[in-house]
Design a protein that fits this description.
The chain has about 500 residues and is mainly alpha-helical. The chain has 22 helices and no strands.
């Protein structure tokens, strides 16, 4: 057994063991800590609902999906039209009754994009250094400018154009999820997965919030989709060349819109290095890297450094990455007001970082402060803190949308807004159901990882490796449950695979 093969087996086992450890820990800890500081719920109600959903989906999968031949294209198209028509109606309902005026970061970007389209000059009256501090949102600015200009040609207002953009990207993620599941499991399971995805209600409720979380939802699942189409026997062929070029384009977009969305690509690279039988396939990554570098250089020269946009307002530069790591270790004694999630956005930390003349000077302070906070907690205290932090992110089935919808709402006096978001009884029904979907995902993830261990899987699981990757990232970074929004398509993939694994293990005697 050569070194590469041994490393492959180690990575496979490590990924599955780490999946079980991390998410079993999160699952158990969730019954001791609230999932979000904005509310405290009875997790056992959500758990009961989760088991009911598991049983319902079990019987649906066993009766209608397992070992059934694909349905005809005619019926598949009819079903898809019905499902997407229903989805669009619900999204429009949300826009009509629960929409918000652009606020926080996406509001700053929207205002800049709108005034640029109308006047040719960005609005610098509010937060002039925003894009200098946070260049990660320049791509959002570009997308908004494109859609606002395009919408003007057909008579749409700037806000309606932004909402249209958001719906297109959200629905693109559902389309890519469907195509991925169809390629991997067939069209019956793909329809099954699409229905399950609608039960994750947060993306739909985010319809009016056009931020990087929704605009990057399609990226991770598209990486998986392209990976499934790779010809892993051949090194160079037209299909592979095209896929690796598309990898480069997607990598560039994901990096610019939301860095966490490229984690599945990192998992794919690890697979190609250690699990692929055709080791020369890795050479194709040169074309991915080339496309990524070219697009990044063009974007920097034509957009980021272009004087007509005026993104550079001072000598501070961007807020350093170490700031987000420091903010990810909240000083509990100093900031226990309940307004933040554990390791979430903290205005005090923000001011601490900006007290320096430039971002480079802030780095040493950020690192020292991070280590001081960890030392203050101690090893056991820090472990407990990470547990709370993980629970906060991974069992919030609303992905913070409930908090975002009451900020700058356009419907404060409307019946539906008040009944759904302000009526405590109704809101808790929403919380229990949405959290039950998170429990459904976590249970599916842990059990399927265990089943794969029993079956001695021989290939690196890029979906689980991606999920473990984002889990570890958020333990170290600023923590927000909405940062998981763009991984929901992968969560649905896991649930579908879970039922497939159960079928292969326990339904073998079923006769079609």
């Amino acid at each position: 057994m050569n070194i590469r093969t041994r490393l492959n087996k180690i990575i496979i086992s490590f990924t599955l063991f780490l999946t079980i450890f991390l998410f079993l820990n999160i699952f158990i800890s969730s019954f001791f800590y609230p999932s979000n500081v904005f509310y405290e719920e009875n997790n056992f109600i959500s758990l009961i609902l989760a088991f009911l959903l598991i049983l319902i989906l079990y019987f649906m999968y066993k009766r209608f999906i397992y070992k059934k031949s694909d349905i005809s294209k005619k019926y598949e198209i009819i079903i898809l039209i019905i499902l997407f028509f229903f989805l669009l109606l619900v999204e429009l309902f949300v826009l009509k009754n629960l929409s918000v005026n652009p606020g926080w970061d996406f509001g700053v970007v929207f205002k800049n994009a709108e005034t640029y389209v109308l006047t040719g000059i960005r609005d610098k009256t509010y937060y002039p250094s925003y894009f200098e501090y946070f260049p990660n949102n320049i791509m959002l600015f570009v997308l908004l400018v494109i859609f606002i200009k395009g919408g003007a040609f057909i008579g749409l207002s700037a806000l309606n154009s932004a909402w249209l953009m958001n719906l297109l990207f959200i629905n693109l993620s559902y389309i890519m999820l469907y195509l991925t599941l169809r390629k991997k499991f067939g069209n019956r399971t793909a329809i099954f997965g699409l229905v399950i995805s609608f039960f994750f209600i947060a993306p739909i409720l985010y319809s009016s919030i056009f931020y990087s979380d929704t605009l990057s939802m399609f990226v991770g699942i598209t990486f998986i989709f392209l990976f499934l189409y790779l010809n892993k026997e051949k090194t160079f062929c037209f299909r592979n060349s095209l896929i690796f070029v598309l990898f480069g384009i997607l990598l560039f977009y994901g990096k610019e819109i939301k860095i966490t969305s490229i984690i599945p690509f990192i998992a794919i690279v690890i697979y190609l290095l250690f699990s692929s039988k055709n080791k020369k396939l890795i050479l194709n990554l040169l074309s991915t890297l080339t496309v990524f570098i070219i697009l990044s250089c063009i974007f920097k020269v034509c957009i980021v450094d272009n004087s007509k946009f005026g993104f550079q307002e001072s000598d501070y530069g961007k807020v350093p990455y170490t700031h987000w790591v420091m903010m990810g270790v909240e000083d509990i004694e100093r900031d226990n007001s309940g307004r933040n999630s554990y390791g979430g956005y903290n205005i005090s930390d923000y001011n601490l970082t900006l007290q320096f003349d430039n971002g480079k000077e802030a780095v040493k302070f950020n690192i020292d402060e991070t280590l001081t906070r960890i030392k203050k907690m101690g090893a056991v205290g820090y472990y407990k803190y990470l547990n709370k932090k993980a629970v906060n992110a991974w069992t919030d089935g609303l992905y913070l949308v409930d908090a975002k919808l009451v900020m700058n709402s356009r419907h404060v006096d409307d019946f539906i807004y008040n009944e759904l978001l302000l009526n405590k009884t109704n809101k808790y029904k929403l919380i229990y159901f949405s959290q039950s979907m998170q429990y459904l995902f976590i249970i599916s993830l842990v059990i399927s990882a265990f089943l794969k261990l029993l079956d001695h899987s021989e290939k690196i699981d890029i979906v689980r490796l991606s999920i473990v990757g984002i889990c570890i990232f958020l333990l170290l970074w600023e923590n927000r449950s909405r940062y998981l929004l763009n991984f929901i398509p992968l969560f649905v993939y896991v649930i579908c695979e879970f039922y497939g694994l159960l079928g292969n293990k326990y339904f073998k005697n079923i006769k079609n």
